[in-house]
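Fold this complex.
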Amino acid sequence: MDIFETMQTCRAMRYLKPDPIPDALLDRVLFAATRASNPGNSQRWGFVVVRDAEQKQRIQAAVSDAVRSVTEQAAEAARAEPDAVDPMNQRILAGAGHLLDHLHLAPVIVVVCAHNDYPPGAPPQLEYVYSTVYPASQNLILAARALGLGTVFTTFNLSCEPALREILALPEDVQMGTVIPLGYPERDFGPVTRRPVAEVVHYDRW
Amino acid sequence: MDIFETMQTCRAMRYLKPDPIPDALLDRVLFAATRASNPGNSQRWGFVVVRDAEQKQRIQAAVSDAVRSVTEQAAEAARAEPDAVDPMNQRILAGAGHLLDHLHLAPVIVVVCAHNDYPPGAPPQLEYVYSTVYPASQNLILAARALGLGTVFTTFNLSCEPALREILALPEDVQMGTVIPLGYPERDFGPVTRRPVAEVVHYDRW
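Structure:
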């Protein structure tokens, strides 16, 4: 699939079918993720690919416990003052609630991680972790979309880090970046909603 | 261009021609960058597109002053113990030296930034900045490669933040993520060098 079409139609898919994904597609998605930019080509990433039903349920429980209060507060505020919330945010909120309830039913959850000691032996530096995991995550979701698979780029890990570390048995020097459910989408791909370039570009200086 | 081919051949291009880039191509690259994932579709990014010769020279001087000692130390260590350095790292080092000398000659330097207050009014949180700027930067380099333009994903900003902030007149609540030179490449695109997927994937738990 053409890269521009892929990027333009790479909607966050919060409604996923439970149908399994062929291994060959998953492999292509992971291959694409590992072709991403990363500091000095150190490739300090690691991908935890969760397909085991019990592991997915543990992840769903941990994420749901941690995130639900946030989304429910936002949903309540939206109900109290519906005019203050734009339709896009209302859709995101409804989708997030659905995703929290159904996260474990996605056939695969990928947790994108990186070792936090780059160069090896150096003190942890967030920039190296994040400039490793986020570009890889972006490649991952683009590749998935090109193959007709839905994903949503989440940082659920930020809200329940200790619980997820334990569930995934992460070594101490490994840090999570994203938690990305993957599956065939229940809804259609279509153009993403973004501001025009002219609003966010500055020439020569801010 | 097919997205998988784009990702597989998106080499860091540290040798760029000074030839100008048509505005239409630059616009497509920026459009692609702004289609990226970002927290809650907040799109808190800002792109400083530097084409002015004097501004580019200021950036080159600031980056070069800050980064050269690092690359020279590494180059010296490599000369002292050539067997300890793998050829890939030697190529990266040589390329980095060339890039530092020629950064201002790239027709465009894009500095990808984000407001650091997401949600608006919240205290700065690096995760929101980086999960905004790095996916956008990844889209940017992929789109450039698909159009035959070379880039290299750098975090030069980390080494000379105060100087660059001043040169670019960045507001206090705006943080830089990447400094990406853009131009027609002097060398050929080709497959990126990456470890096999099997070495970096863990199933169900680390």
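The longest helix of chain B spans residues 53-80.
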